[in-house]
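With this grant's support, we have paired protein sequences with backbone structure tokens. One protein thus recorded is set out beneath this paragraph:

_____
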Amino acid sequence: MKAKTVQFPDGTSVPAIGQGTWFMGEQRSERRAEVDALKQGLDAGMTLIDTAEMYADGEAERVVGEAIAGRRDEVYLVSKIYPHHAGGEKAITACEQSLKRLQTDCIDLYLLHWRGSIPLHDTVAAMEKLQQSGKIRRWGVSNLDTDDMQELWKIPGGQECMTDQVLYHAASRGIEFDLLPWCEEHAVPVMAYCPLAQAGKLRHDVLDNPVMQKIAAVRGVSSSQIALAWVTRTRNVIAIPKAVQPQHVKENAAALALFVTDEEIAMINAAFPAPRGKTSLDMV
């Protein structure tokens, strides 16, 4: 079965499941395993890799840089900038430092990690300057709610935003009330971080729920694969699970070709009901 893809507004297609790197780079003893996991993921078709200058104070970017060395052209590289760096010369410096750690001359998609005190129009201006200098190809945002996106859309150049990266999994569905519909209406893909609720650490019932377990058993897959297939059930969501164990990487990649049925979606929706009203944006 054909692997799921998602298209950015500029026409670029990426796999619907990529690779996250949050918590990578924190222990030197894990470096080899983390690099190998990212390489394994690339080999299996998960060519989008997401990282950030914040992760392990830049060490996660170094892990990514090591993993993609010699195969940069295969990778759609995403990194994120701290809010307090996202304007003026600070943005230029932060990006250049990320590029050095990543061992590349250009980031494919550069995201504002969350909204801070620097005005959005200053961030847009900085992103445009980084684009003009060839340091980034495209830019986007992370952890912005609907009102933030509406404000961004009114700023000259703001509609060049490629994605909004937010927390999204079966037990955290607040974005479905207004943010996800807004993004779909404006053809802005959502990038879902913690799509497995950090392997169930955030919400144990995501992977251990009897409904998830039952569907997985019938399909002969893991509950994490069902959870990923549910998150990526539309053509507008990219999931970026983090995995280091070879088996977990293999399962994540296999979920690219796993499609949940309407009946299975209904079962999961019943087990994890979406909120009926506006909720605050879930963040970790």
User: Anything to note?
Assistant: The CA atoms of residues 170 and 269 lie 8 Å apart. The chain has a mean pLDDT of 96.
